[in-house]
Amino acid sequence: RLHATDVTSSSFRLTWPQLLSQETGYYSLEYAPAAEPARKRTQQVSGALTSLVLSDLAPETTYEVALIPESNVHFFPPQATRVTTLAEEISPVQVLISESGPHSFQVSWAPMLASVASYQVLYGPLPGNSVNVLQVDGGHNSTVVEQLAPNTTYLVTVTAVYRSGKEKSLSAKACTQEGERGQ
Q1: What is the largest CA-CA distance in the chain?
Q2: Domain shared by 60 and 112, yes or no
Q3: Which pTM was predicted?
């Protein structure tokens, strides 16, 4: 049976049983997005192969795949499968710091992605190695960080934790305002 492994947002590996050999024929491989059969692509595959990686695919797309053994010895029925690529794992592309006061600031980020389960906001003073972590639900794109020291530079890192388990991060620097006496 034809089946897919190593599925990513833009590729997957097809494997199938050894039906042909180099001498007895080749395979025609056809694949297209299930929603757009007209965008079918076809390629010839050596009869010696039992696996192949398809790449340059669209993310979050279901593909109809057919492997047709072209044998000059036996008739083999076509093998077919459906494979859905994963959502694209993009890291947060913007981290914005706003509403900065002596003891707090707001952190917001973009884009909002449905494939993110949660965000982790790590922050700590520079220089220094103390880090605090805030967990933020995947449906939110901002949080307020509080109880900070005035007139201090913080390193803020937003990590998107994807439903697939992968993580991507982006950092920014934030400065708190001077305290009351500095006015």
Answers
A1: 91
A2: no
A3: 0.56
Residue 11 falls within a domain, yes or no?
yes
pLDDT string in tens for the chain (183-residue length): 899 999 988 899 999 999 999 899 999 999 999 999 999 999 999 999 999 999 999 888 999 999 999 998 889 999 999 999 988 777 777 899 999 999 999 999 988 877 788 999 999 999 888 899 999 999 999 999 999 999 999 999 999 998 878 888 999 999 999 987 544
Domain span at 126: 94-176
Name the nearest CA neighbour of 85 among 49, 121, 35, 50. Answer: 35
How many CB atoms within 10 Å of residue 109? 23
Distance between CA atoms of residues 154 and 40, nearest Å: 51
DSSP letter for each residue of 91-118: PP-EEEEES--SS-EEEEEE---TTEEE
